[in-house]
């Protein structure tokens, strides 16, 4: 669905002239303040009888403007003096200063979004906005949850909830205070982070969500900003959170964390001594089948095997039948000039090699069998990451999501960790097994 702004931008000049010429003088003056005309789809309230609307997006995606306009929508009536749907609003941010500078006085704040005849008055001493119809919006800091014990509201706007230090306590106090009117509602505008309170809110049946990446609002952002953040963070896990607005789910006790993976990021790999393609085959086909994990990795074999560094180059995972993943694996070998293809054969047995050789009868192939559970098999690979001995290129987001949901107990995400299994096999082939072979003779000499 196109916004009015998008239509104007793409319309022919004569169409724009006809549209604007058909408006009365009052309508033309009101048009800049008619948010429904200019809004992007994720900035408009969803239909339905919801309690909480979470607007989750990347930096600069227009979340603050959406929150400001929603407050206007709730408190304004047909004219400046007429009552609106709501009368008492809570504005909650990380600090008083941030609420005032962003939610109230910011470029997309309530005052900037309000037309002159509807603009509320800021009462600094009482930390609140007051409208001509008597509606008020009072500022609260997420550092002081007890301040919400006592007041009561029929609407609330919580900004950047995912970074509040006392988010659980503040959110709970806000829910007790949101008790006026027939159906009190609240809006949460936030860049996602893996915090319990946000996940709990998203899991509520009464919560609705809209989402947009930073790029959705590019018409209102500096091109130099977009180019810089895309260059620096595009294709990284941090970029998926801060630019794409994706909630990254790091589970408690995970073998890998977002911080660990961001620390392993490199722009390019050096000249590699060996490259392999590792495959975790899908043994079933069809819509309900698992993906076939295909990961390409290489290693620099300078010095003793105990100091080698591996580089994860590509996640070429596909979903399809056996010939589909076999072709994808062989294509990945060709792209990276890999010297060997390794694959787990616990479930497929000889069929795995047979399918691969249907595509390329001469491919260097090694069958691998798992003797331990996924979590135990992944643990020594995670240890190499902790030592800084495995590096990641960009563009491995889906693989990294699985990594941050793997614990020693097993995988705690949805489905099967096919991408992660392929990664584990690749690192075992390149680093762990050569290191074990190097250590064993030394032990015998001792």
Any overview of this molecule?
The chain is an alpha/beta fold and 446 residues long. The chain has 2 domains: 201 residues, P-loop containing nucleotide triphosphate hydrolases (Rossmann fold); 188 residues, Nucleotidyltransferase, domain 5 (2-Layer Sandwich). The protein is 37% helix and 18% strand. The chain is built from 17 helices and 16 strands. It has an 8-stranded mixed β-sheet, with helices on both faces. The chain has a 6-stranded mixed β-sheet with strand order 13-12-9-10-11-14. β15 and β16 form a beta hairpin. α13 crosses α14 and α15 packs across α17. The N and C termini lie far apart (72 Å).
Question: Would you kindly provide a brief summary of this structure?
Answer:
The chain has 17 helices and 16 strands.
Per CATH, the superfamily of the largest domain is P-loop containing nucleotide triphosphate hydrolases
State the CATH topology of the largest domain.
Rossmann fold
Instruction: Report the radius of gyration as a whole number of Å.
Output: 28 Å
- Please give the count of helices: 17
